[in-house]
Structure formats: structure tokens, C-alpha cells
Design brief:
Radius of gyration: 18 Å
CATH class: Mainly Alpha
Distance between the termini: 62 Å
Order of helices and strands: HHHHH
CATH superfamily: Homeodomain-like
CATH topology: Arc Repressor Mutant, subunit A
Low-confidence stretches: 91-95
Strand content: under 5%
Number of domains: 1
Shape: flat
Number of strands: 0
Number of helices: 5
Length: 95
């Protein structure tokens, strides 16, 4: 498929899925529909960008067209940021 066909297919899929998401969302009643839908889209988008970049956050950010710090903030807020491994000192002070 070319880019235009991909975009048309995406639009078709989105127009099929979006009404279902809205219907099943309580966010529509509370005035948070935009935020709710974007959160559902953003999580798989960020995961996919990280997969395409083999986990490299700088490459993923460039792919998405956003700053790396913005990507890290979004990953943290969505609970997608890997847990930091300590500095290897196991809490022991060096002499």
C-alpha cells in the first residue's frame, strides 16, 4: 500500500472504531471525551514508536516529531517508562 491508501484505510478504521469508543466511554458525559480518546490512542502509538526504534527514546521522539523530554514525560504519565535500575552500588557508600 502507498501512503495515501494507508491514510484512507486508517480513516476508515477510525470512523468505524471511534463511535464504539465514544459510546462505551463515560468520559463523554463528564466532558473529558477528548482526553479519554487521546489517552487510548497515545499509549499504543508511543509503544509502537518505541518498538520501531528498538527502545531508543531519542529515535522514537524523532519519529513522532516531538522532543525527547516530552516523550519521556508522556511515557511517565502513561506508566510506560521502564523502571530505573539503580547505580549498582546497592546503597553502599564507597570509601
Amino acid at each position: 500500500m502507498d501512503g495515501r491508501a494507508d491514510a484512507e484505510e486508517f480513516d476508515r478504521l477510525l470512523s468505524t472504531v471511534l463511535p464504539i469508543v465514544v459510546r462505551d466511554s463515560t468520559a463523554a458525559e463528564s466532558g473529558r471525551l477528548y482526553r479519554s480518546v487521546m489517552a487510548r490512542v497515545e499509549t499504543p502509538l508511543l509503544r509502537h514508536a518505541l518498538e520501531l526504534s528498538a527502545g531508543n527514546q531519542l529515535k522514537a521522539a524523532r519519529l513522532l516529531g516531538i522532543n525527547r523530554n516530552t516523550l519521556r514525560k508522556r511515557l511517565r504519565l502513561l506508566g510506560l517508562l521502564p523502571v530505573a535500575r539503580g547505580n549498582g552500588s546497592n546503597g553502599a557508600k564507597s570509601a
